[in-house]
Structure formats: C-alpha cells, structure tokens
C-alpha cells in the first residue's frame, strides 16, 4: 500500500508501469552537477546548503557577465547564441528519449530527430530571411528562387523525413517508435518555435529582447534569494523547494526591476530602435527616431496615492507601463514553465536535463521559463504594439512590375482624393 501511494504521489499509474517495461525497464539515471575542483576545495568547509548557494551564485554572476558581453557584441551575435542555445536544449531533451529508446537498437531515431530539427529551422529561418531581408533576397537570384519556392521546399524536406520514419518501423516495436516520433515533434514545438519567436522579438528592438529575458533572470534569482532566507511555506509539489515567500518576494522585486531597467534602456536608441538590415553596408543597423513608446510623458498620479508619495504627476516612458505587464508575466506565469519542466523531470526520475552548468543543471534547466516568456512577448507585441510597417510595404511595392506599380499608384491616388487629403498635401 505504501509503494502504491508513493507511485500515486509521483503521478504514476498502471499504464506508466506498462510503458516502463516497453521502454526497457529502468529509467534514466539522474544527472549530477560537475562542480569544478577549485570550487569544491574553496567551499569544502561549508554545509551542502551553503555550498550550493555559493556555487549557484558564482555561476550566476558568470552567466550574467556573459549575457552583457553578447549584448555588447550586437544583434548578429545574439541571434547566433539563440541558435546555439536552441540546439543544445534540443540535444538535452532528445538525449533523455534516446537513453530509453536505444535499448532495442532501432534504426534512424537519432538521425531522424536531427533531420527534423534541420527541416524546421530551414522553414522558420527561411521565413525570417524573406521577411526581414527582402531587398537582399530580391537582389540575389539564388535567394530569390529559394524564397519563391521556400514553403514547397520545406514541405518536401519534411515529407522525406516522414517517409524515412515509416520505412524505419520495426515489427513488435511500433508503439515505442511512435512514442519517440511524438517526442521529437513536441520537442521541436517547444524549443524551435519559441527560439524563432525570440529572434522575431529581437528584430522589434533589442529592448524587447533584453527586458523580458532580464525579468525572468531577476525573478529566478530573487525568488531563490527570498526562498533561501525566508522560505517556509511550500508552493507546489512538483518543485518541493519552491516557497510562497520566494514566489511573492520575486514578484515584487521583478516588477520594480522591470520599471528601473526599462527607464534606463528607453533613453538609448541602440536598444529601442528596430533591428534592420542595411543593404548598402550589408550589416544590421539600430538607428531611428524613437517612437512615442520611448519618449518621456507626464502622467497624473491617482488621487489616493498623491498623499502617500507627495507628487501629483510623474514623468515616465510609456514602455515602462508595458514593462509592468512583462515583469508580471515573468514572475507569475513564467515560473509555470519551470514547474512544467520539473514535472517532466520527475516523470523520468532525473534531477536535471544535463550537467552542463554546475549548480544549475543543463541549458534547458535555465531556459525553461524563457521559452514561455518569448511566446508571451511575441503575442503582446502583435496585439498591442506592432502596426503596419511602411518601409516593408515600399520594399515590396518596388519589386512589382511597372504596370502593377502604376495600378497601385492610381488606386492610392483615387483613395486620397476621395478623402480630400491629396489636395491639402499639394497645397
């Protein structure tokens, strides 16, 4: 009875036990962190609790420093890093599946997994290149052909992988192979799609990339700090170490951090301007006239709060108001990405996705909340921020045939005349 109740606590049912036998018996061995020997010697006199605190703290500072460096190096390096992180996260999740799958020595699973990763990246990044590098694509003949037939080529590549999977099916192990087929596709959905959205956010302006990521990092750190020093009340069974004190403390600290970071970054064009490709220099540029989002405006403070703060108005950037929504999501909903990852790890009885970063686990352990945040930011921009882009419309207009351009010109002219705008503009 005790063993049955333990299984229920872990969310395991009879069907899970049947799956165990098909997956080869024992689950993957939990991973452990490889703490550098230098840190082990330096922290040998501390308890395991404080040793873990110092290891996590030192590695966190190192990662934050690395984050500052890649921001300084510019958009192209940031995109490359996002791509590398995506590949590493995919590798960590697929490796868990491979540890279960390779017992039967079935063919092509690892090869097909990486092939599907290649296909999906070709599709998404091809769409991005066509969208953001339109003039360059139209200028180069090979790129123009690839752009024109991009979706057909992408579908043909995927169809090839699909046929390869069908041909790889082995008698008596069909169900296991379809488990792994689904495993690969869910991993692609979670990892590749979200990393693609991160790059789209980056093109809207580096501030839409840096602020959301920084809010998640801040919430992770502050929730850990508040939980470490004040945590008493467990938050969720999936993550026994998470506490309500850490969750609430992290929320308030993240909102305050988001407001301050947004105020600082909104004053710099290199952060607020959209990332655009300059066809003359063949490089990225981030120079523009700041939009209204990044211009200081005066807001009236509610009457209830005026007596408390002693001010009637406050000057702030409109983006700071949006940052409250971003930081609130990062601290209240973002952690559910971590809870989801915790449930996944508990299902396979592993501590971390990998042991890449001492004290932190694998890359996926650090980016489980970031992917959920990327989707929210992309949806938020599309719903509340982004409008029609005149420069992109002009680029597409210039690629049309002369007769098509003339037709659009006459249509637009007639429309402006009906509105009574063309005469006033000529005057």
TrEMBL record:
Keywords, sorted A to Z: Lipid biosynthesis, Lipid metabolism, Membrane, Nucleotidyltransferase, Phospholipid biosynthesis, Phospholipid metabolism, Transferase, Transmembrane, Transmembrane helix
Region of interest: Disordered: 1-36
GO process annotations (BP): CDP-diacylglycerol biosynthetic process
GO molecular function: phosphatidate cytidylyltransferase activity
GO cellular component, one term: endoplasmic reticulum membrane
Primary localization: membrane
Reactions catalysed, as given in the entry: 1-octadecanoyl-2-(9Z,12Z-octadecadienoyl)-sn-glycero-3-phosphate + CTP + H(+) = 1-octadecanoyl-2-(9Z,12Z-octadecadienoyl)-sn-glycero-3-cytidine-5'-diphosphate + diphosphate; 1,2-di-(9Z-octadecenoyl)-sn-glycero-3-phosphate + CTP + H(+) = 1,2-di-(9Z-octadecenoyl)-sn-glycero-3-cytidine-5'-diphosphate + diphosphate; 1-octadecanoyl-2-(5Z,8Z,11Z,14Z-eicosatetraenoyl)-sn-glycero-3-phosphate + CTP + H(+) = 1-octadecanoyl-2-(5Z,8Z,11Z,14Z-eicosatetraenoyl)-sn-glycero-3-cytidine-5'-diphosphate + diphosphate; 1,2-di-(5Z,8Z,11Z,14Z)-eicosatetraenoyl-sn-glycero-3-phosphate + CTP + H(+) = 1,2-di-(5Z,8Z,11Z,14Z-eicosatetraenoyl)-sn-glycero-3-cytidine-5'-diphosphate + diphosphate
Keyword Lipid metabolism: yes
Bilayer topology term: Multi-pass membrane protein
Cell compartments where the protein resides: Membrane
Enzyme class: transferase
Pathway: Phospholipid metabolism; CDP-diacylglycerol biosynthesis; CDP-diacylglycerol from sn-glycerol 3-phosphate: step 3/3; Lipid metabolism
Transmembrane segments: 108-125, 152-170, 177-199, 205-231, 243-265, 319-341
EC number annotated for this UniProt entry: 2.7.7.41
Compositionally biased spans, kind Basic and acidic residues: 1-21
Family: Belongs to the CDS family.
Name listed for the protein in its UniProt record: Phosphatidate cytidylyltransferase
Organism: Jacana jacana
